[in-house]
């Protein structure tokens, strides 16, 4: 089954067959429009894949959509969160309150949720300001980029690792660790039906945000992790993909290969751009040089912040490959290209 992305107003809950349903849940004020929440039926009650944004309209859509499909939110057995972002984990706590359901996510994202819950607002603002300064943003722009922080999602009751089977009696749903978009992103392989719930890891038309925060970390390589995770998904074969956004599509392996090629081309373009510049560049300067869905000057400040995170991830991947070198500085870290 394949359903093209349409505006949220045109979306409807669907019975996808084989004991799997989908419910579109709106994301207020976001161009993505909605998150596709999936429900897998089982004798003790359905298990949800993701839950949607924490907003009254989203809750009405989720609970009402399940009811349309003959499912009661109060009967939900569990929620498996593909990753901690608010459009996926936001309503998990409310589902738990309504039903007593457990919440599960990968242990790496669970650690981040605990950290977020302990982080005060003032500390977060100071962290953001220092991160932007080290990236090369001027103070005025840094103040504009730092936006309001969403409330942390509910703490999970269960933590998953790669290869774990989800508590889903009568079905075989296995966690596949696919870091990159977040450290603990998971896809979920419904092995008894040759379906893969891909979260944000593999989407049919767009690609997920891969960033580094703080921007100048040199101990992680999320883009490298993401590319490796694409290979892992490709190895599962031409499964039907049930993503969290856009539409359902066949042959996840083919799409994973396309996304890998896209990022490899992007890395090569960036390496070539840096090689043309005689002076080292800050992360902010590199982000302004890269190609986005609109010109840099037209990006609103919060999107510039995300673009800088993505530029940082690409720079880190090039550094890991030995194509660029970072030069730490008092004001900001800078990068320059090495000879091929």
Automatic annotation (TrEMBL):
The keyword Nucleotide-binding does not apply. One of its GO terms (molecular function) is hydrolase activity. It holds the Pfam family Lactamase_B. Residues 138-162 are annotated as: Disordered. Keywords: Hydrolase. Residues 34-245 form the Metallo-beta-lactamase domain. This is Hydrolase.
């Amino acid at each position: 089954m394949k359903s093209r992305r349409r505006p949220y107003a045109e979306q409807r809950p669907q019975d996808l067959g084989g004991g799997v349903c989908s419910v579109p849940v709106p994301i207020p004020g976001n161009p993505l429009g909605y998150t596709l929440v999936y429900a897998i039926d089982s004798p003790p009650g359905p298990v949800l894949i993701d839950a949607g944004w924490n907003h009254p309209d989203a809750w009405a859509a989720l609970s009402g959509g399940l009811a349309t499909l003959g499912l009661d939110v109060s009967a939900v057995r569990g929620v498996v969160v593909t990753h901690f972002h608010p459009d996926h984990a936001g309503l998990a706590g409310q589902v738990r309150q309504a039903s007593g359901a457990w919440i599960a996510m990968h242990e790496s994202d669970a650690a981040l949720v605990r950290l977020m819950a302990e982080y005060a607002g003032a500390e977060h603002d100071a962290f953001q300001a220092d991160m932007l300064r080290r990236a090369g943003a001027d103070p005025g722009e840094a103040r504009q980029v730092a936006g309001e922080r969403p409330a942390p999602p509910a703490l999970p009751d269960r933590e998953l690792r790669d290869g774990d089977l989800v508590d889903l009696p009568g079905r075989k749903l296995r966690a596949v660790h696919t870091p990159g978009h977040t450290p603990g992103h998971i896809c979920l392989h419904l092995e008894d039906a040759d379906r893969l719930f891909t979260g944000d890891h593999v989407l049919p038309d767009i690609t997920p945000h891969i960033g580094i925060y703080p921007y100048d970390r040199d101990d992680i390589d999320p883009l490298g992790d993401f590319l490796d995770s694409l290979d892992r998904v490709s190895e599962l074969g031409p499964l039907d993909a049930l993503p969290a956004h856009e539409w359902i599509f066949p042959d996840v392996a083919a799409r994973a290969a396309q996304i890998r090629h896209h990022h490899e081309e992007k890395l090569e373009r960036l390496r070539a751009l840096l090689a043309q510049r005689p002076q080292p560049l800050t992360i902010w300067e590199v982000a302004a040089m890269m190609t986005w869905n609109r010109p840099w000057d037209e990006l609103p400040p919060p999107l510039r912040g995300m673009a800088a995170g993505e530029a940082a991830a690409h720079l880190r991947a090039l550094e890991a490959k030995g194509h660029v070198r970072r030069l730490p500085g008092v004001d900001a870290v800078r990068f320059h290209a090495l000879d091929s």
